Amino acid sequence: GTTGPQGAAGTNGTNGNDGAASVVAGPQGAAGTNGTNGNDGADSVVAGPQGAAGADGAGGIDGAVGVTGTTGPQGAAGTNGTDGDSAYEIYATNNTDPDLSEAAWLESLEAERQEGPMMYTVTEGGDISTTSTDNLLVTGMTITPTQGTYIALFNAEMSTTTQSIDSNQGVADLTSLYDELYLLAGTSTHALIFGSGEVLLPGVYDVNGAVTISGTLTLDGGGDPNSMFIIRATGVFSTEAGATVELTGNAKPENIFWLSDAAMTTGANTAMKGSMLAGGASAGAIGLGSGTYLSGRIFTKLGAITLGANNIIIVPTNNGLFNLGVLSTFAMWSNDGAVSDTASSEIIGDVGTAEGALNIYGSLANSTITTTYSVYLNGVEVANSSRTIKLDSSIVSLQAMVTVSADNHPIEIRWKVSDGQASLGHRILTLIRNGY
Fold first, then answer.
1. Can you tell me the distance from the alpha carbon of 191 to that of 212, in angstroms, rounded to the nearest whole number?
2. The pairing of beta strand 136-143 with beta strand 387-389
3. d(CA 386, CA 119)
C-alpha cells in the first residue's frame, strides 16, 4: 500500500551531564618568577684531599759556638831521626876521589878567613859640588883598608844645575854652523814644492825661491846612519797645514837641516824633522803654527822665534855630523831677536837669545846634565863599577867587589859631569869584608 503521512516531531530531551575533563594538556604557560634562595646547607663533615707540600722555609741562624773542650793528654814523643851526614861526608860524596882528608879540608876552610876589621865606613854630611869633566875624588870618600876582598858600597844625594852659556859664543857657533852648511857643495837642485808622497834621498839640495812642504815627504837614508839632508832656499820656507816629514832608512833628525835666507813658518799640525835655520841679512823670523811637532831645533841669526798653541819641540840626543858648539843642547836660539812660547807649549831642550827678550810660559825641560860615578882602587877605576845618571836629582848608589892586595892601597869614589855643575850631600862609603 502507499506510504502514510509523517508523524509530528517529538519534543527535545533534557541535556545530558557534562562530559569528563579532557586529559589533553593545554599550552605551556609563561615562566614564573624565581623564588627566594633557600638557607645554606650545613657544612660537610667529610675532609677534602691533602694539598701539595709547601716550599722549604729559609735556614735558621747558626747557633752559638759551643764551649771548647779540654785539651787531651800529650802524645808520646816520637823516635829520634837518624843523624845527617857531616859537611865533610857531603864533600866526599860529591867528589868521587876527594884529594883532601877531613882534617886538611877543614884547614882549607879556615884559610879563607881574613884578618882585620869586618867593616869600614866614612860619612860626610856637608854639600860639595864639581864642574869637572874629568874624574875627581869625591871629598872624604876614601878608605885605606887592610888586605882582603871587600864589597864597596857608596850612597849619596845628588842634584845638578845647568850653566849659562856665553851669549857671544852662541852667536859665533850659530854663525859658524850656518856658514859651514852653505859652503857645502850642492848635489842637486829641487823644485819649489817638496812632498805629496815624494821620497828624497840624501844630498845637498838648492832651491831658488820660496820652499813649501805639502802632504808627506819621506827622507830615506838608505840604511846609512850618517846620511845627510841639507835643503837650502833663497826665499821663505813654509809648510802647509798637516804636512808631515817622515824618516826611513836610518835617517836621523840631527843630520837634517832646512836653511832659508828669509823667514820660516809651519802650518797647523805639521810634523817636522830636522833643524830650521834662518839666516837672512834683513829678516829671519821663525814661527810655528798651532799643533806643530818638531824633532830638531830652531835657530835664527836675525829675528824673533814664536810658538803657537800646543807646540812640541824635542832636541835630538845623539851627536850629529856637524859641531853645534855650545848650542848642542838648545831647542831654540836667536842671535838677535826675542824668543817666546805659549802656555800650552812643551820644549825639551835649552832656550836662549843673545840680544832679545826671553819669554817662556809653557813646559820647559832643560837639557839634563850627565854625571858619572866610579869606584877606584889605588888610582885605577874598578872594572864595571861606574854608573852614569841623567837626572836633575837622584840618589846615587854604587856597589862593587874590590880585592886589596896591599895595606896601603886606598879605595875611593870619583865623579865627573858632562857639563854644568853637580852637587852631592849625605855621602857614605862602606867596605864590608868578604870571607866571614
1. 9
2. unpaired
3. 22
Q: Which among 395, 372, 394 is positioned nearest to 385, based on CA atoms?
A: 372
Residues pairing with 293 in the sheet = 271, 312
Who contacts 197 (Cβ-Cβ below 8 Å, separation ≥6)? 215, 216
The answer for residues whose C-beta is within 8 angstroms of residue 212's C-beta and 6 or more apart is 192, 193, 194, 238, 239, 240
**Mean pLDDT to the nearest integer, 195-211:** 97
Helix H or strand E segment including 106: helix 102-111
Write the CB contacts of 291 (distance below 8 Å, at least 6 apart in sequence): 268, 269, 270, 308, 309, 310, 311
User: Nearest Cα to 292, choosing from 342, 230, 217, 367?
Assistant: 342
Q: Output phi, psi for 87, to 5 deg.
A: -60, -40
* Tens digit of each residue's pLDDT (9 = 90 or more) over 410-429: 999 999 988 778 899 999 99
Instruction: Identify any residues that bridge with 284 across adjacent strands, giving them in sequence order.
Output: none
Segment 150-175 shows an average pLDDT of: 87
Cβ proximity of 163 and 426 under 8 Å: no
Beta bridge partners of 137: 414
The cell for 239 is: 809648510
Q: Enter the pTM of the model.
A: 0.55
CA distances from 54 to 48, 57, 60, 227, 279 (A): 17, 9, 17, 89, 98
